Amino acid sequence: MSDARPFLPFALPEIGEEEIAEVVDTLRSGWVTTGPKAKRFEQDFAAFLGAPGLEAVAVNSATAGLHLALEALGIGPGDEVITTTHTFTATAEVARYLGADVVLVDVDPATLNIDPARVEAAITPRTKALVPVHYAGLAADMPALLALARRHGLKVVEDAAHALPASCGGALVGTLASDATVFSFYANKTITTGEGGMVVVRDPSVAARIRVMRLHGISRDAFDRFTAKTPSWYYEIVAPGFKYNLTDIAAALGIHQLRRARDFQRRRAEIAARYDEAFAGLPLVRPARPAAGDLHAWHLYVLRLADAAPLGRDAFIERLFALGIGVSVHYIPLHLHPYWRERYGLQAAQFPHSQHAYERMLSLPIYTRMGDADVERVADAVRQALGA
Predict the structure, then answer these.
(1) Residue 243 known to be catalytic
(2) 58, 174, 216, 240: which has the fewest Cβ within 10 Å?
């Protein structure tokens, strides 16, 4: 079983002439690190979300954004942070940077998003924050999670790395009543700056702390110091900060990617609908759909093999690769990784839904550079790999 056509990769970014021209303009401007383009990207991002009072702070990764958000909210040694086991390690590791402990909980078996009932059962007097993940681009049950947080006095930092533009209850992720929302612009995300992220908050004091801590704890942005019309060389270090700023070169990409975000989402949704139709009747579990009126960002299209499938997940992946289709797995749950397993004495039986999904799941290509023929090729390969 093989395919002579060129290999179809799992993900490719769509970079247009506008992005290229903006990067060239940045290079010619002489300002290549954090400066006017980064500030413009922040302003554009807040405007895109469209809710009053939001501040957007650009950073060099979503990991950095999660770290800065938790730090600004006062998370530290002795605290507990609850998140899902079914995520990339960045979601959890940032709490450990701050000396806090991570409490992992299972997911809803249909959506693969964090289960609010499991969250509530995990809350202790040490619990200070909750980090829900909008898995694959489908919003988590934020009304339930925010209600829990209010009852127990918890901070909420949304890991929205997959979720631009997704919505929950008709409101865009990033505009909900959480303390911070963190987006990713990594190469395979719904928009990209190569590497990068954005933290969105409402509290000006939290935004100010994040801005200071993203660049060494310096009291003034380099852009402000180096473009002032009067001598302004003086600055103060007010905290032991980090090096988490987004460059203008990256922001130049983001400015134009953001303008295309809704078109990108529509194309991803079209591909997801084609897949759903193609896989009807096969021994597969298709991804959960959003509630009526809400948007799924479709960062990932995650299939699961049904119990009646004629082969296992690993063999399925091998057949698809032999047919020239790049696929991946999202994710190997945290409870299976040595660090998390050994530090907290975790066992797969504690996370039955995540474990069951992991053993049967794979992610198919879903990106805007795919043509209709590419989508049909993937669908045909899935049917062929299943012997259908």
Answers:
(1) no
(2) 240
